[in-house]
Amino acid sequence: MRKNSIKNTRINEEVLHELSNIIRGEIKDPRINEFTSVVSVEVAPDLKTCKAYISVLGDEESQKSTLEGLNSARGYIKNRLAKSINLRNTPEITFIIDQSIEYGVRMSHLIDEVNSTIKNEA
After folding, report:
1. Which positions ≥6 away from 102 have C-beta within 8 Å?
2. pLDDT in tens, 15-33
3. pLDDT attached to residue 40
């Protein structure tokens, strides 16, 4: 299976949906921030590994504790994923903090500052 095939895209979407449901509704770890979302998922074509990009609303300490909580619950998450998705192999999940939303918000604020400076000078 190729990386950008239709089958791989459907598997990525299904894993993303189920992973979001598991993190939001089934994990009770107090370290995991309640404003945690799965931004995207990349399942390898051989279905053995998976990169899950996680966005956490909060400070850096909250992001670290959420990542620790998710890593400690990795076995449970894999088990729940195996029960909800019928795949030949259930992938090993690697959680990665996604900074793109924060980066976008920061860039938006910088653009607003530049625009207000230009209006004030004119």
Report:
1. none
2. 999 999 999 989 988 999 8
3. 94
Q: List beta partners, residue 54.
A: 38, 97
What is the amino acid identity at position 36?
A: T
What does each C-alpha distance from 83 to 7, 19, 57 come to in angstroms? Answer: 20, 12, 29
Q: Is residue 1 part of a domain?
A: no
Q: In angstroms, rounded to a whole number, what is the distance separating the alpha carbons of residues 41 and 51?
A: 6
Query: pTM to 2 decimals?
Result: 0.80
CATH number for 105: 3.30.300.20
What tokens were used for 37? 């979302």
Contact 12, 41 (CB under 8 A): yes
Sign of CA dihedral 76, 19, 103, 99: positive
What are the pLDDT digits (tens) for 111-121?
999 988 888 87
Query: What is the domain count for the chain?
Result: 1
Split at pLDDT 50, 70, 90, the class of 86 is confident
